[in-house]
Amino acid sequence: MIKVEASGLQAQLLALSELERNQLPYATALALTETAKCVKERLEGEMRTVFDRPTRYTLDSLRLFPATKAKLQARVWMKNEADKAAPASKWLTPEIYGGARPDKRTESLLHARGILPGGMYVVPGAGMKLDGFGNVNRGQLQRIISGLGAQGDRYQNSTDSKRSQANKARYFVMHRGRSPIGIAERTGKGRGGVSMLLAFVGKPGYHKALDFFAIAEREADDQLPAQFELAMARALATRRR
Fold first, then answer.
1. What is the C-alpha to C-alpha distance for residues 202 and 218, in angstroms, rounded to an integer?
2. pTM passes above 0.70
3. Residue 50 and residue 122 in one domain
4. Among candidates 225, 224, 237, 235, which has minimal Cα distance to 33?
5. Is residue 68 located within the same domain as residue 159?
6. By CB atoms within 10 Å of each CB, which of 27, 58, 81, 84 scores lowest?
């Protein structure tokens, strides 16, 4: 988490008049919040550069916590909640710190059903449909998981309907010898009628793609003095007489 605090304003604070000091808490809180906004915008701009076709969800993954007169500290960090999706704090952390990523929901379900071997992960195969951002088509992924009977809730899994039975026959775990290598789809007869959808791979690692803290700190250092001057001018212009 990046924190923007008033510790970088010593020179400006020493030069204040008594009138200005009376407006100090408001001006400081405003300057910290505006600086944090600049930091957030700078990080979002960096995401557009370092990530391949970032989605709107990715670009909206940061949250600003404004400063107040009672708490002179503004913060920028990842959102920790999501609607029917993994929170940003889960999947963005490896891009900031590097290292291994946690299991995705699909992988957790496949591990729980014994379909995906321990220590293995899934990546899109040649037959998997991807959207314009390079992400897996959720509808197709849902059909695969349901067809394999790997949903977390047994009532969400395939039923005994003809369509569900067809899905069960359509998706299967492909093996090389005795080792499972992925999830495939039957699209026709013979070897040519099989398409690999999800390949099983070893633990993927991430290098640090987003230099979150260094970028944020540079932006905060650049912006805070100027934002404080603007905030103080606004505080004096709007003060009660």
1. 37
2. no
3. no
4. 224
5. no
6. 84
Whether 161 and 222 share a structural domain: no
Q: Please list, in sequence order, all residues whose beta carbon lies within 8 angstroms of the beta carbon of residue 83, skipping any fewer than 6 positions away.
A: none
Domain span at residue 184? 103-203
Same domain? For 57 and 21 the reply is yes
CA-based nearest residue to 62, from 85, 39, 78: 78
218 and 184 within one domain:
no
Name the domain count of the chain. 2
What b/e readout covers 198-235, taking b as 16+ CB neighbours within 10 angstroms? bbbeeeeeeeebbebeebbeebbeebbeebbeebbebb
pLDDT mean values, one per 10 residues, the chain (241 residues): 75 62 84 97 94 87 94 92 71 83 84 90 88 79 85 51 58 92 87 88 82 95 94 81 53
- Indicate the pairing of strand 2-5 with strand 73-78: antiparallel
The H or E element containing residue 28 is helix 24-50
Together in a domain, 124 and 50: no
For residues 194 and 92, give the distance between their C-alpha atoms in angstroms, rounded to a whole number. 34
